[in-house]
Amino acid sequence: MTADIIDGKAFAATVRARVAEHVSRLASLDITPGLAVVLVGEDPASQVYVRNKGKQTVEVGMASFEHKLDVNTSEADLLALIERLNADPAVHGILCQLPVPDHIDADKVLAAIDPAKDVDGFHISNVGLLATGQKAMVPCTPLGCLMMLRERHGSLSGMNAVVVGRSNIVGKPMAQLLLRDSATVTIAHSRTRDIEALCRTADILIAAVGRPQMITGDWIKPGATVIDVGINRVPNGEKTRLVGDVDFASAVEVAGAITPVPGGVGPMTIACLLANTVTACCRANG
Length: 286
Ligand code: GUN
Known about the structure:
Elements: E1 4-5, H1 8-27, E2 34-40, H2 44-59, E3 63-69, H3 75-87, E4 93-96, H4 106-112, H5 124-131, H6 140-153, E5 160-164, H7 171-180, E6 184-188, H8 195-199, E7 204-207, E8 225-228, E9 232-236, E10 239-243, H9 248-251, E11 257-258, H10 265-284
Helix pairs in contact: 1-10, 2-10, 6-7, 6-10
């Protein structure tokens, strides 16, 4: 039996439609949610992400403010821009695309963003709010994963979840969200012993390591739900292709449900960013 394919692209379209409805209701109150995206440098993958974010922001009726800065922009200039965006009432969400160039301290930049406008959920105060079960801005990629899991399972209570990867952007907040939904959560990483056996205990397996096709079918418990966060570009003859952290061909034979790459988690991330921006806008306007 092969796994059900979780269609993140279709799900994201329904989330965007809901966001667009909210935006049109706000328009009748003369309010337009605005998202500012800051990109420093010319990393090709980041440029694609930023372009897609801007395009989809406009498509749902929100205002998009793109700030593309030269790779040599100083940390001070970037912080000054963040301060201006913090003070701008037309901007409800601010996202600084990561990674930033080495001469800029990413932690300093994230700390400078007004937590109320921190639609990435990376500011330390949002991280703390999430960890203590309070109302927080939740990071977009884990939020998108959670929505797909809830859609598939309803309640996650008591399920064994293994999150492979311990990044601040995905692994840690993903674990917090699963815990908040009463799953039993383990975070696995490069030093985890017998990681294959641990993964085989998972009813829910989240792959967020950034290693192409690392997780193969024999790591997966039959019937498990597998969420593949990886977006890795690998050679494919003369060209390249995108693959996840999961070896889809072998995993699909064992899992109960699986997200494809592309078309799984990726579209949900941007949809959640738009949703977070509307949330920030609503909070700002009482
Ligand atoms: N780089 C890769 N993923 C993300 C993300 O979700 N937010 C930001 N700001 N940068 C990223």
